[in-house]
Amino acid sequence: MDLTNRFRIWIVNEFGTQNLHCLIYASHKYEINLIEELVDTVYKNIAPKRLHSGQNLIGLGPRLDEVKSLLDMKPNDKTIRMLGIYGLGGIGKTELAKALYDEIAQDFDSACFLADVSDKSKKTNGLEDLQKTLLSKMSGKLETRLSSTSKGMGEIKRKLCQKKVLLVLDDVDDKDSLEKLAGGCDWFGIGSRIIITTSDKGVLIAHKVEKFYEMKELDQQLSLELFCWNVFKQSHPKIGFDDVSLRAAGFAKGLPSAIKEIASDLANLPEESVDDWECALEEYERNPLNKKILDLLKINYDRLGYNAKQVFLDIACFFNGESIEYVKKIHEEFGASHIDVLVNKSLLSIENGCLKMRDLIQNMGREIVRQETSKLGERSRLWEYEDVIQVLTEDYGSDNIQGIKLDPPEQVKVTWSGTAIEKMKWLRILIIRNTLFSCEPKHLPNHLRVLEWEEYPSKSLPSKFHPKNIIIFNLPRVHLTLEAPFERWGVRRVFPDIHPLYWPYLEF
């Protein structure tokens, strides 16, 4: 059997006989040309495949209606719109985009769903390959030759500017990818809709996308329903599992990907019993992030630049709930704009002028620090009061430590030698509250930007402490006696960068 006939049989098996009437060819053509024609014919005659199985689309109904309202699709529509769907990684943006694609794709001349744009674009010739896929799906002809992404941009605009198309670009994390795949509304014909999913709203703003939809967490009821579908294959708990199911779903804090992972863990237990589930959930109480959930969430962190990562970890460990002005001032050395980056990436929100980080995200940040090393004294940040006291009393700090926050729920007394901080020469943040120390610190690092110490155990600062980088200096209820070089230099010379807002905290 020759190659062409084998290909014809494959088409019949794959797509049915309804496409065979299109396969007309002359006997004198070379076989390779025939195959190219057959492939092109397949592209032209196959309707867009559904992306969803139709199961477990919990909570998507109302969201679909909201997104369709933003798309504003009408008969004889003459507009071209770009819509960005943004939110935390794992929150269900791709699921929503797939469901939307399935529902409206038939209303367009051509439709294309480009998945995993971020990962694919980073491969060798990745963007060029994405352009080829886009052109092939939209034009109905297999695109094999693009010499550059610049040529691809021109081809997309040339071939699609007269077509009403639906284009979904899933998981886009940089402006360059958008410019190469959907440079502007004028690339596409009237009535077209371009939908972009991203974890970074800043990418949409930079590309001048005008319509936005923020993907938010599921509420308690929808979280429970999604959990039950994944464990019990029904919308409600089995008899006797009501309370434990609600508790299990609650650990995910409304994040669909985390709900599915927890459901999978419990469904795979050797026996389906309430007692076994209770034991498993006790482990979640001790460690809310198992490896799979941590890996899902950590994708959001891994895409940050170095400075943004430092700001993120500081907020996760020390500053969740603090004033945005306070935190921005502290992090001027990294660039205050990184807080805006974290907000755009849905890792942080601002409520009433204060920073708010979701529990799961904060736990993820703290777990990243824990995994730096098993040795407490060599971690970059310490915030658990038992850990801080252990490091200070046993004197095993290191120059890896950048920040310390000691704030026990009840006042404690700490007996120490006062020398532990001397090893922490790169310490930037030192916050001590509700703690009484047996003696003063023998040393304070000159790199400190934040020094907050309630009940500071001395009337003088260490003689070699020259805090020229300090921004926050707060020693309440302490009257310091300045000694040289402080007396000679004067307060403003000693603290050249301190913000006027914090001058009231200086008591001498």
UniProtKB/TrEMBL annotation:
All copies of domain NB-ARC, residue ranges: 65-235
Residues of the Disease resistance protein Roq1-like winged-helix domain: 307-371
Keyword Nucleotidyltransferase appears in the UniProt entry: no
Species annotation: Flemingia macrophylla
UniProt cross-references to InterPro entries, sorted A to Z: Apaf_helical (IPR042197), Disease_R_plants (IPR044974), NB-ARC (IPR002182), P-loop_NTPase (IPR027417), WH_DNA-bd_sf (IPR036390), WHD_ROQ1-like (IPR058192)
Gene3D superfamilies: Helical domain of apoptotic protease-activating factors, P-loop containing nucleotide triphosphate hydrolases
Keywords, comma-separated and alphabetical: Leucine-rich repeat, Repeat
Protein name as it appears in the record: TMV resistance protein N-like
Alphabetical list of Pfam families matching this protein: NB-ARC (PF00931), WHD_ROQ1 (PF23282)
The UniProt record lists the keyword Nuclease: no
